[in-house]
Amino acid sequence: MLHAPSRRRTAVGHADGGVDVVLATSIGNGEDLGPAVRHSFESGKPEALLHQLRNIVRKKEVEIEELCKLHYEDFIVAVDELRGVLVDADELKNMLSSENLRLREVGSELLLRLEELLELYLIKKNVTEALRTLKVCVQVSKLCLTCNMHVSNSRFYPALKTLDMIERNYIHNTPLKPLRKVIEKQIPALKLHIEKKVCSEFNDWLVHIRSAAKEIGQLAIGQASSARQREEEKRARRREAEEQSRTGVGDVACALDIEHVDEDSMLELDLTPVYRAHHIHTCLGVEEKFRDYYYKNRLMQLNLDLQISSAQPFLESHQPFFAQIAGFFIVEDRVRRTAGGLLSDGQVEAIWETAIAKMTSVLEDQFSRTDTASHLLLIKDLVTLLGATLTRHGYRVAPLLEVLDSSRDKYHELLLSECWKQISDILASDSFEQMVIKKEYEYNMNVLAFQLQSSDTMPAFPYIAPFSSSVPDVCRIVRSFIEDSVNYLLYGGHINFYEVVKKYLDKLVIGVLNEALLSMIHTGNLGVSQAMQIAANIAVLQGSCDLFLWQAAQLCSVPLRVVERPRAGLTAKAVLKASQSAAYSALVNVIDSKLDEYLALMNGINWTADEAPENANDYIHEVIVYLDFLISTAQQILPAEALYKIGVGALCHISDSIVAAFLSESLKRFTLNAVVGIGNDLKTLEAFADERFQSTGLSELKKDRSFRDCLVVARQLLNLLVSNQPENFMNPVIREKNYGALDYKKVASICEKFKDAPDRLFGSLSSRNTKQDARKKSMDMLKRRLKDFS
């Protein structure tokens, strides 16, 4: 067998012949033939490679056949031996498997014992560490227990010292991490608990001191009242002595007045909780927090004290209210002087400024709510006592006294407020119809009493006044206001108070009466007759301003020559005149809105009619009926000047509306027939305007503009549209004479819509007379020139 390879190599070497040696060697060594195959195809000679491979295959087949013949018996023996080896391998495998199983059983038991041993070692280590840790933890726990005992006994300062010792010496050396975390967590909680306990005691003190403040304040105000009474008695004795000395009657007795203040009568103020809380917070390092807490809570209490109960009238509650405030600031003065900087002077000043602001606000509000002057004086007296009390404790009360000095303003504000409500109610309930007076006493009460008569003769009854029922009612309110104002100022001891009364009278008429009228004008849904009546009422009230001023001068004992001086009248007179203009403007707006409703009927006009209408359109009759009603009503209520303004405004609005109808975007085209129809409407309207201008007597006013002149824009536009030579509009002379009121742009827009005749089928074939053609050419020329001009 050892010689077989040698023989095979020899046979192969002899059989190669001309076969490629490289290819044969590669195949024999099992190498990849890919490069050789790729090279053959790339060189374009794959047949040679294929031929060589076939030769190699044939030769290898021959070698295999010879080899099989040569070694047949050896091959059979080798197969038998291989079968024996397989049997031995199976036996060895089974033996190894059983040994592995037995080894695993023995190893598992040993591993369990090893794990138990390691666990025992770990327990021993942990117990040793625990014993060492417990020694430290016992010391920390004792300190914690001591601290808790101090806290339970409300010995907060030793408790804080113990906590400080734990934090500095033990907390970082505690080996037990959970205990250290618990202590680290509980120390802030315990400090917070101590802080809360101290704050609780302090809060109890806050409740107690607030309840005691009223009594403290009442006692202090009582002492101030006694001091004031003694001072008044002293001044009375001094005046009596001076009178006796001047007259020489009786003995003059001199006495030394010694003011005695019973200090024992003052309540003892226990400020211990304040001092203790301040000290504990200082130890906790949060002194500023407690100062802020004290400041905010006392400020909160002050704000509560400054609140007024709505369940009780201020006249009944003002004494305890001011007593509470006085007690509060007496306590704060003591704290500021004895609590070691708990409150700074700036904070006390800030609290006082808050109180001053609140009290002034309360006084202003309550003065505005008080319904009588005597109540104001009662409150004022107590407030001055409060000021005297707090001045002794170093508080600046000048702002409070300034509010008291302005109590007359609050008094008049009260009167103005009442007048506002009364006047508003009167105007709201007035129907704004001319007042009908049936009896003489009614005439005296409503007309003569306020000099509203138009003549000195007694009229026949029933008498229809030019004003409504609200005018005499308003005059009564103004007269009552003047009387109340003078009475209050007289009581106040003012010397020259006529100008003050005049100032407030102006304020009443301007700020109350005039504003109420303007509110009615601007916000009320007024009809035409109502708006007219308001304008007439304002004119009457404007004339009554002189009467109001005369009444004030009479009550103030001022000579009438002072009232009659130039520019000595009320400013309100000019303001009412301006309001009358506003009333006329509102009336014009109402009239324009109503006219717009009727003029909207122009939308029903046939703007491309084939034939011209013979009569005016229906809408113009509605407009004339409304204008007739309007002018008739205005003639009864308004003066001639106002009637003229109303008529002019209405007719101008109609003229503008007619022009606007031609300019409307909804109107695309119109014909001459439609223009003729509008012309008929305008003629009817012009005839009405001429008739009413004469019948109402307005022609006697000699105005430059009549009612017909108000329609000139619409008239000139219609004249242009029906003109045979509309292009003359571009002639400056003719335009100035006949079309001066028209606007270029509007004329251009309207002319673009104008068609001389309606379009018809085969319209170009229809006959047209020369006059129509000439007008059309002239209109076309005007359109072109207007377009070029624009």
From TrEMBL:
Q: Which residue intervals make up region (Disordered)?
A: 227-246
Indicate, by first and last residue, each region the UniProt record lists as having compositional bias (Basic and acidic residues): 228-245
Which GO terms of the cellular component aspect does the record hold?
cytosol; exocyst; membrane
The segment(s) forming the Exocyst complex subunit EXOC6/Sec15 C-terminal domain are 399-753
Q: Which InterPro entries match?
A: EXOC6/Sec15, EXOC6/Sec15_C, EXOC6/Sec15_C_dom1, EXOC6_Sec15_N, EXOC6PINT-1/Sec15/Tip20_C_dom2
| Tree of life domain | Eukaryota
Instruction: Give the transmembrane ranges.
Output: none
Q: Which BP terms in the Gene Ontology apply to this protein?
A: acceptance of pollen; Golgi to plasma membrane transport; intracellular protein transport; pollen germination; pollen tube growth; vesicle tethering involved in exocytosis
Q: Which Gene3D superfamilies match?
A: Dsl1p vesicle tethering complex, Tip20p subunit, domain D, Exocyst complex subunit Sec15 C-terminal domain, N-terminal subdomain
- Answer whether the UniProt record assigns the keyword Electron transport to this protein: no
Exocyst complex component EXOC6/Sec15 N-terminal domain boundaries: 52-221
* Location(s), subcellular: Cytoplasm, Cytosol
Name where it mostly resides. Answer: cytoplasm
**Pfam (any one):** Sec15_C
Which keywords does this chain's UniProt record carry? Coiled coil, Cytoplasm, Exocytosis, Transport
The record's family statement is:
Belongs to the SEC15 family.
Q: Please explain the role this protein plays, according to its UniProt record.
A: Component of the exocyst complex involved in the docking of exocytic vesicles with fusion sites on the plasma membrane during regulated or polarized secretion. Involved in polarized cell growth and organ morphogenesis. During cytokinesis, involved in cell plate initiation, cell plate maturation and formation of new primary cell wall.
This chain belongs to the protein called Exocyst complex component
Species of origin reads: Ensete ventricosum (Abyssinian banana)
